[in-house]
Amino acid sequence: MQEHLMPVPFYEDTVVLVGQGTDPFVAMEPIVTNIGLDWKTQFRKSGGRFRSAMVEMTTTGSDGQQYRMTCLPLRKLPAWLYAISPNNVKPEFRAKIVRYQEECDDVLWDYWTKSSTSRSETPNAAHLIALSCHRVALLKELSGTSDNAIRTAIHEQLALVSHQLGLSVPDLTSIGIRTPAPADILIEFWSALALLDRKGVRYNHCTPSKAFLYLQLPHLAQLFKKHNISIKFTRELRQAMKESKQPRYVSNTTQHSAMEHISLKCWVFEWPLRREREVFDPLQKNPVRRKTA
């Protein structure tokens, strides 16, 4: 039996209906993501009460591509939604969850019944206008988002809506500014430390006789500001620091500061002793490596 993917605008979101013969199903992952919940967690929680009703479908989108989705019969959607307590979610999503509980199943059922005789034909004007408005909203949201994972998720929704309208899908890299790759962020960060080294500025809170680097981020931020180094400790940079291989990240723990002589929360990296460490500027294409005295 052929199944069809049907994106349906719902306020600023897109909810996906899946048609299987005369029965409407709802793709659950987009709804869970839309209301600010974690899909894997919700899938696990739904395992008892709704697992028997959920089905895995390989659907065909209007772009001709196949999508594998976990779906719930539309008639079961209200029960699933009302099983979520708005008081147990983040405050910014409470109003949206109530809106989904009160309106979403009606909107989906209305779309299914009113368009059931013409689903293979051109969508009506009202639906085209709604899809067009939603496509613009997705483009604006994507343009203002830098987190790579969120950008990918928004772009997937944009692809669904664009194909529904018969429009091309803009390349993800052409919309907005993506988060720099971890390697790029780290090169800039370690280069900043190399600059402090050249200026003779001390920033390592570890005892000089130990082969570790203790970075106290508030102190380091002050040094960056003082020396006109435009680096902020963003979430992306912190994540890249945790993934650093050279020097290798060890932990983020309380250590004794050899500079302040008190215990401070520090980022710890393996750091060869000064007499063994090779000093180089990561921004140079062919850095000159040398032993320090």
Summarize the structure.
The protein has nine helices and ten strands. It has helices at 28-34, 39-45, 77-82, 91-115, 125-143, 148-165, 182-198, 217-226, 235-242, and strands spanning 3-10, 13-20, 23-27, 55-60, 66-73, 212-215, 249-256, 263-270, 278-279, 290-291.
Strand order of the largest sheet: 1-2-3-5-4
**SS field, number of helical segments:** 9
Work out the count of structural domains.
2
The helix content, as a percent range, equals: 25-40%
* SSE-based structural type: alpha+beta
Shape verdict? elongated
Number of E-type strands: 10
Low-pLDDT residue spans: 116-121, 275-293
How many strands, what sense, and barrel or not for the largest sheet? 5 strands, antiparallel
Query: Could you report the average pLDDT, rounded to the nearest whole number?
Result: 79
Radius of gyration: 26 Å
- The N- to C-terminal Cα distance equals 75 Å
